[in-house]
Amino acid sequence: MLVEIGLIEKPDLDEFNRRGYYMVDAVKCPFQKGGGNATPPRVAIENCRSFLLQEISSYKPKVVCTLDKTSLGVFLNARRFRLSDYAGKFIENYCLKDAVAQLRIPILACWFPTSMVDSEIKLEAMRHLRCILTNSIS
Questions:
Q1: What integer pLDDT is reported at residue 117 of this predicted model?
Q2: What's the CATH code of the domain at 102?
Q3: What is the pTM for the complete model shown?
Q4: What is the total count of domains within the chain?
Q5: In whole numbers, what is the pLDDT of the chain averaged over residues?
Q6: Are 83 and 69 a contacting pair, CB within 8 Å?
């Protein structure tokens, strides 16, 4: 998707890093024996949040882009929500958990690239991210 919207020229992690992008899991510690793609338990997310926020704080990104409901939930001050209500939008500070709001880094909610959501809807959210990034670089 990053290639398709023009943020990188080819699907290459080195180019991704050279451009100053950084990808990280919402949970910064192992949560399931043997790995896998299962959603981590809420307790694992809660226990690992401080490590993630510390990493974000030290990296100081221009924007944080969440790529699914689980990662958005790390930042959002709500137990129950629909990703579709937030995807493609910046999260208002009052909707964020206090520790996240204090970072003063914009949080943009997006769909996970391989989700079952219509590709055009996902691309529109990613195009919004491209506009933010290219405007903040210029």
A1: 62
A2: 3.40.470.10
A3: 0.72
A4: 1
A5: 79
A6: yes
